[in-house]
Amino acid sequence: MLSKLLFLLIGLNHKTAPVELREKLSFTPSSSFLLNLKRQISSFKEAYFLSTCNRVEFGFVLEQEKKELLLNEFSEFLKKNLGFSWERFKSYFYLLENEEAVKHLFEVSCGLDSMVLGEPQILGQVKNCYQQALEARTCGLFLNKLFHRAFFVAKKVRTETGIGGGAVSISYAACQLAKKILGSLKERVLLLVGAGEMAELACLHFVSSGVKKVVIANRTFSKAVKLAEKFKGEAFSLEELPFALTFADVVISSTSATHFIITKSLVASVLKPRKYKPLFIIDIAVPRNVDPEVNKLENVYLYDIDDLKAVVEENLNERKKSALRAKTIIEEEVLKFKKWATELEIHPTIRALVHKAEILRQKELSKTLKKLKNLSEKDKAHLEVLTNSLVQKLLYYPINYLKKGYHENGKYAINIVRQIFELDEDDFKPVLKDEEKNLLEDSFSTELKDKKVVNKKFYLN
Questions:
Q1: Is the pLDDT reported for residue 165 higher than 70?
Q2: Domain span at residue 123?
Q3: N or C: which end of the chain has fewer CB within 10 A?
Q4: 375 and 235 belong to one structural domain
Q5: What are phi and psi for residue 445, nearest 5 degrees?
Q6: Are residues 129 and 212 in the same domain?
Q7: CB within 8 A of 186, min separation 6: which ones?
């Protein structure tokens, strides 16, 4: 995509790796994590980190020749922070470059790469990932443009297709699975272990399906109380979990704990008080909250996030039709982004050309004004407009040649313009003010609307 820069995406998801492996890489996404990444990996220019229930992805912008160095540093980073062997597990990862990496991020943002096709929560997680990169200052010109384009594509896909039709999510799939196993939920008691966003989403689906009662157990009791009030339920502390398990029919566990909250011994201890009534447990947390050994107990049925795939498949038919149109939109947007990224290489030449023309314009105008001492301020303003207009019209041709010629002749077009206008001469190397640099760095944006820089806008459109 870029002759000097490489956009590299390293990740794994529910399609390439089991939950046991994904939970080993479950870093908590934050700006401080990115700062730590920056301290330990020196070979990238820009970076982001995306972590959800179903994926862990690292995005890097770096110089082409530093790819091997980055992979070595990344391997050391995983080993040092997790004791994770890259050589042992690298077959579970996907490494995508340039257009393929851009396409993947667009698909992720639109929900096309989610376990539940078209689920909307992922876009919010991508936005948080972008915000963390901004806070850590690991987001530069390339990633800033890329993320904003990803948000635009996601909005366009949802507006123009039916990909978001129907409230389909992991939480919804959990509710559907519970109905299949237990039949009607109207006389059932739902126990939520955790009071976060996933727990609330699950609660919404179960309440709409008519559960008799909602019970919330959470480490922070105040959060459990707040969520219980919203659904007219009952709140417990995590220490009271054994008691809550004695009367629950369905358990949804979604805490951020890094160890098992619900163990085999805990569940075994409540079977007799429950009179061995069936207990249905869905663990939608990563890392998992429930010991897999629980499934061996009598009348206890445990499902984790990977088990929900079968339920999810039943809700995909209509969304798959919409996904075809969505993929066409994404392909178009990837090509547009590729064109923008490619044109970044001509950016320094356009900047130098604009700067040299402005120096010459001001120099010649200054000479003329010294000779025409009786001119009014109004006449001087007219001369300013005239010279600006002449420069705009003259620069249109070399800039247009650069934009079109680059795609046909590559660096040859850049070299021609630089030689003709002697842009590498020391006397005319650009030394711009910060505000001018900011303007010119966004030279291919369609969002420049400030009338004060109308003359520079012309050069860059």
A1: no
A2: 5-160
A3: C
A4: no
A5: -80, 150
A6: no
A7: 210, 211, 212
The more confidently predicted of residues 401 and 73 is: 73
**Number of domains the chain contains:** 3
3-class SS of residue 140:
coil
Q: What's the average model confidence in pLDDT over 121-127?
A: 92
Asked if the structure places residue 29 within a domain, the reply is yes
Residue type, 171: S
Domain boundary residue, one of 108, 132, 160: 160
> Is 335 part of a structural domain of the chain?
no
Pure H helices in 10-140: 19-22, 31-40, 67-82, 86-89, 98-110, 121-135
| Same domain, yes or no: 147 and 178 | no
Domain presence at residue 196? yes
Judge contact between 365 and 387, C-beta under 8 A.
Answer: yes
| Residues 181, 251 within the same domain | yes
Residue 410: which pLDDT band, with cuts at 50, 70 and 90?
A: low
Q: What is the mean pLDDT of residues 251-269?
A: 93
pLDDT at 77 over 50: yes
Query: Angle 31-40/67-82 helices, nearest 10 degrees?
Result: 120
Cα distances from 199 to residues 192, 196, 204, 438, in angstroms, run 6, 5, 9, 44
What is the reported pLDDT for 303?
92
Same domain (yes/no): 175, 309: yes
Instruction: Say whether pLDDT at 412 is over 80.
Output: no
Structure tokens at 402: 């650069």
Q: Do residue 265 and residue 388 come from a single domain?
A: no
Beta bridge partners of residue 290, listed in sequence order? 262
pLDDT for the residue 453: 38
Tokens 């966003």 map to which residue? 197
Asked if 271 and 355 sit in the same domain, the reply is no
Buried b or exposed e, range 313-336, using 16+ CB within 10 angstroms: eebeeebeebbeebbebbeebbee
- Domain CATH for 239: 3.40.50.720
Residues 6 or more apart in contact with residue 51 via CB below 8 angstroms: 25, 26, 27, 28, 29, 57
Q: Are residues 198 and 289 in the same domain?
A: yes
Active site residues: 53
- pLDDT (mean) for 134-157: 94
Q: What confidence score (pLDDT) does residue 258 get?
A: 87
Least confident of 27-41, 219-233, 377-391: 27-41
| pLDDT score for 451 | 34
Identify the pLDDT of residue 166. 55
pLDDT, position 437: 44
In the block, which residue shows the tokens 């000779």? 371
Q: What is the pLDDT of residue 432?
A: 45
Per DSSP, what are the bridge partners of residue 193? 217, 253
In a domain, 319, yes or no: no
